[in-house]
Amino acid sequence: MTAASCGPTAGAGAHFGVVVFPGSNCDADCYHVIARVVGRPVDYVWHGESDLAGFDCIILPGGFAYGDHLRAGAIARFSPVMGAVRRFADAGGCVLGICNGFQVLLEAGMLPGAMLQNASLRFACRETLLRVDNAGLPFTGRLAAGQVLKIPIAHYQGNYFSGEQELSALEARGGVVFRYCGPDGDASPGANPNGSLRNIAGICNSAGNVLGMMPHPERASEDILGSTDGRLLFLSVVDYIEGRAAARRAAPATGGGGGGGSV
After folding, report:
1. For 173, phi and psi rounded to 5 degrees?
2. Which residues are catalytic?
3. Could you tell me the domains of the chain?
């Protein structure tokens, strides 16, 4: 199932795909932000699809893929589309996993670590503040290191966990992208809404083109929602993709063969 692209600039610019698993419930939110707020072409991608040709960025949205049976993301990792997502990322494509999408990326082994139940054993639905720790990614180009963003969470299994050695390696390579913090940017225990180790709210892979985050940037992309900070992530991806495309067009022809990735 692939829906037609829509939006003010449909057919031009960075092309997004929003994966739909049985149980996804934030797919329409992401689609709306890309099409109506950011103004770029976007398609729904059914979980049974195995070809992502033509896309520049794939979004794995929030929700409860396959009802979160076994544990969040454990079944979705076996969907045909996830093999395509892995190949897409390996070829340099941008992948953004939000909430349940982050959990799916962890289960698929595309990001390190695991997600536990919130330390409170309660569903957490609230505004949070995030400190930007890595502003050098396709997703954070419009952000500054140390900047504090207001973006909400809505999850029961958002307690990020990793072994000490793996966690230290993640920190050392700049893999921690966002941390829960207070208004001054201090990542204190009191600002941690779910018990995540070291207040981790979002991480990336070693190449920097796969980002998983528990907070919902699509729910902080319009003034009516109380924050537009989340919009900056989507606009950063657009800048990155369209900037690279413009650079390729401007580069002198070398006569070489075509590449595999879409970014």
Report:
1. -95, 10
2. 99, 216, 218
3. 16-247 (3.40.50.880)
